[in-house]
Design goal:
Helix content is about 35%, strand content about 30%. The protein has a single domain, classed as Aminopeptidase (3-Layer(aba) Sandwich). Strands 1-2-3-4-5-6-8-7 form an eight-stranded mixed β-sheet, sandwiched between helices. Helix 3 runs antiparallel to helix 5. The mean pLDDT is about 90. It has five helices and eight strands. InterPro entries: Acyl_CoA_acyltransferase, GNAT_dom. This is N-acetyltransferase.
């Protein structure tokens, strides 16, 4: 059996389904929500680059180094982003969760938290991973805070780790969750999702004024 095989991961808020070329138009629409490609320290594909990005991810899937997903919001069925298992190391049972972006309209809705819970659960409980990595640009403070909020610990900073097309040098911050930490991280993520659901429910019940 391959280390990474396409599958669908289903939660209450989100469904992660195998990426296909048929998702192109919906992903373009999602990427326009917030125009996240304008943040210079991210790598969100522009609409005209989406087809090539899908092809790149699917090519890496055939090489067994990536397992790409489309992020679909369960409540509406609307596609709202992309995420992957990447940098797969079958021998040492390690993966990285990355190449992730979601439409601005679903930020702070629990979509990202549940997506990470689904991916981490599969990594540790089905793939039997010993560690799962997260990496982000040093200047992407929002991403760094979000990764730390998942319960991942910072391993270090790879300075001058990569160079962008415009010549800018990137310092990459590396985080990870290791196997022994997973039960505590899982409990905390479930608690965050329950608290978020309770707050959203209370807000919906509040009388209008």
């Amino acid at each position: 059996m391959p280390f990474l095989s396409p599958l669908t991961l289903t939660g209450n808020l989100v469904t992660l389904e195998p990426l296909t070329a048929l998702h192109h138009d919906d992903l373009v629409a999602a990427s326009r929500d917030g125009e996240l490609w304008n943040l210079w320290y991210t790598s969100v594909p522009r609409p005209e680059e989406m087809r090539a990005e899908i092809e790149r991810r699917l090519r890496l899937q055939t090489e067994q180094s990536m397992l790409p997903f489309t992020v679909r919001r369960s409540a509406t069925g609307v596609i709202c982003g992309m995420t992957t298992f990447m940098a797969a190391d079958a021998v040492n049972r390690r993966v990285e969760i990355g190449s992730t972006w979601t439409a601005a309209g679903v930020h702070r809705t629990g979509i990202n938290t549940e997506s990470k819970l689904l991916l981490l659960t599969h990594a540790f409980e089905s793939l039997n991973c010993i560690a799962v990595e997260f990496r982000t640009h040093w200047m992407n403070r929002q991403s760094r805070a979000a990764i730390a909020g998942l319960g991942a610990k910072q391993d270090g900073v790879l300075r001058n780790h990569a160079q962008s097309a415009d010549g800018a040098l990137r310092d990459t911050v590396v985080f990870s969750v290791i196997q022994s930490e997973w039960p505590t991280v899982r409990k905390d993520l479930r608690h965050k999702l329950e608290q978020g659901l309770r707050h959203r429910t209370d807000a919906n019940r509040a009388p209008s004024v």
